[in-house]
Amino acid sequence: MTEAYWDRLIEGHLDDGLSEAEQAEFTALLRDSEAARSRFWELAEVHGLARDAARIAWPDAELDDEVAQKAPPPLIISSARGLVAWFRPVGLVAAGLVLGILTTGLAWAIALPQRDSVKVLLAESFESTPPPTAGGVPIVADVWSGDFTELVEAQSGVQPASARRMLRFLRADYAGKPNPGGYISEVYRLLDVRGRRRELVEGDGVVQVSALFNAAPFAADEKYHYSLSMFALNQETATDGTTRNGSAMLDQCLASTRRSNDLLDHDSQTWQKMSAELRLPPNTDFLLLRISVAHGGRSRESQGHEKFTAHYADDVRVVFARRPLLP
Amino acid sequence: MAKTDDPTLRVQQLFVRHQGQLKAFVLALWPDFARADDVLQEVFLAVSAKAAEFEPETNFLAWARSITRFKLLEARRNAPRTGAMSDDVLASLAASCPEDWGSDRKLAALAKCLASLAPKAQEIVRLRYHREHSPPEIAQLLSRSVNSIGVALAKARTALRECIERQLNQEGAR
Q1: What is the DSSP-derived secondary structure letter of residue A144?
Q2: SS3 of A180, please?
Q3: Quick one: B77 and B122 in the same domain?
Q4: A64 is a domain residue
Q5: Same structural domain, B83 and B22
Q6: Which of A9, A223, A296, B61 stands 20 to 30 A from B120 (CA)?
Q7: Are residues B91 and B15 in the same domain?
Q8: Residue B99 in contact with residue B61, Cβ under 8 Å?
């Protein structure tokens, strides 16, 4: 067997193009020849690195059109009342200004493109994702990590919002948590958006995050809240462990948004949706998503408030779009 | 890297530092992008779970590669119709992987080198590594034979390997 043939087998392996007979030859070659193993690593290095290198070399993905989805929620403020309330200026003099803003605002809203491309950064229904790790806030992208949670099928009268599986919150702490216990069970996911830097330069990048929450029937005097947060982080803050310290994360994040403390209802047949939006600073490298359920009211004061019996999340979605700044 | 006494955080920080090398390692041994991502996630979970077993003064990359090898074997057993690579072959192949293989320096050099490819080669490399198409898909997109795409990819990788070497030699000479 010549060295050129070794190369052909190795290149064939890298492109998943070996026949069964060639696969057998390739395996035998690697088992028997140290020189062939060494050659394998020489040839495979470019292949191993090329995907990341391509993302660095060509960061703005024209492939986004492949994942373009539906239009984002319209940015039109639905009523004059809402707009006036939002811009409420002082004094009578401002009345004209309000009208001006109202007129301009509506004209601008109408002038917005009716459809904008929305890129899905995360569409998680927990069907094929690995189980979350109980290791606190993750510092690598694309894994679920946080407090003790698990992925389950339908249970306690709760059906997953879609397909077969959903996330179940179990405890308000994780293995090795410095202060075990607590009353909030939370899980995080870090999303790498460095590939979108060019789209963030103008400050018009917005992410919308949403999740569904549900619980099995619980006692009338118990209360449970659910919350959703998103933090925009630079690379250092996202990966150096800063995010393990809640107050340091708030200090050092570039921007954040939070929807919090909506109460879970007693209807286990329906899922409650929560969503929030965040405009991304141009220097955002990572997004940290947090979803949580918390004991409230009397159950927060009770024994065992670090445990959660049957509380769930499903269909977590993060989408990105570009929207002009408000005038 | 911030110093920490938390063993889990410590190995996760090391994982972040070596993530590029580990990802390249997985892709070399199992050149399926989607499955490689799954394996890498499993490796992250495994190193997190085994954090207490890692001795800080030892070689993290070697430790993580050995965990990766087991995760690869597990994953390949569960994936039908993939080229079989037995445990002993994978073990000796993994053991022969050079320490600085797939380093960040080489990644940075490769990113620069991509621009130096001829337009046709660049298009194929883009389709393969940016859009993550398989060679048969690229052949269909470009109305060419699968064999010719395989040859073009092999030539492009050779050109890129030589370019990386030149880049690193130039850096070394400065």
Answers
A1: E
A2: coil
A3: no
A4: no
A5: yes
A6: A9
A7: yes
A8: yes
Radius of gyration (C-alpha) of chain B in whole angstroms: 18
Amino acid identity of residue A140, one-letter, is V
Chain A interface mutation, best of B89, B117, B137, highest count of A Cβ atoms under 10 Å: B89
Residue B1 lies in a domain: no
Chain B residues whose beta carbon lies within 8 Å of the beta carbon of residue A131: 45
B122 with B61, same domain: the answer is no
Residue A316: inside a domain: yes
One domain, residues A252 and A213: yes
For the complex shown, is ipTM > 0.85?
Answer: yes
Q: Is B45's CB within 8 Å of A143's CB?
A: yes
pLDDT at residue B81 in the model: 57
Q: B91 to each of A151, A155, B28, B71, B73, how far by Cα in Å?
A: 33, 42, 14, 12, 10
In A, which residues are within 8 Å of B110 by CB distance? 46, 49-50, 53
pLDDT (mean) for B126-135: 92
Nearest to A223 by CA among A308, A96, A117, A162: A308
**Closest in B96, B135, B146 to A41, CB measured:** B96
| Residue B11 structural domain | 7-95
**Chain B (25-44) residues lying within 8 Å, Cβ to Cβ, of chain A:** 25-28, 31-33, 37-38, 41-42, 44
Find the domain containing A38 and state its range. Answer: 3-57
Q: What are phi and psi of B83, to 5 degrees?
A: -60, 125
Rg (chain A; Cα; Å): 25
**pLDDT of residue A76 exceeding 50:** no
DSSP code at position A133: B
Interface test with A, best of B37, B44, B76, B163 (most A CBs within 10 A): B44
Q: Which residues pair with A155 in a beta bridge?
A: A158
Same domain? B36 vs B91: yes
Indicate if the pLDDT at residue B75 is higher than 60. yes
B88 and B118 both lie in a single domain: no
Query: How many domains does the structure of chain A reveal?
Result: 3
Could you write out the DSSP letters of every residue in A186-217? EEEEEEE-GGGHHHHTTS-EEEEEEEEEEE--
Q: What number of CA atoms fall less than 13 Å from residue A237's CA on the CB side?
A: 22
Is residue A101 located within the same domain as residue A154? no
Of B68, B59, B1, the C-alpha closest to A241 is B1
State pTM to two decimals.
0.61
Q: Which residue has the tokens 């409650």?
A: A272
Same-domain status, B90 and B16: yes
Same domain, B15 and B90: yes
- Nearest residue in chain A measured CA to CA from B103: A49
Of B54, B74, B95, which residue constitutes the final position of a domain?
Answer: B95
A189 beta partners = A144, A289
Within this chain, do residues A100 and A230 fall inside the same structural domain, yes or no? no
Give pLDDT, residue A2: 80
Contact B102 A54 (CB under 8 A): no
Compute the distance between CA of residue A230 and CA of residue B148 in angstroms, rounded to an integer.
Answer: 47
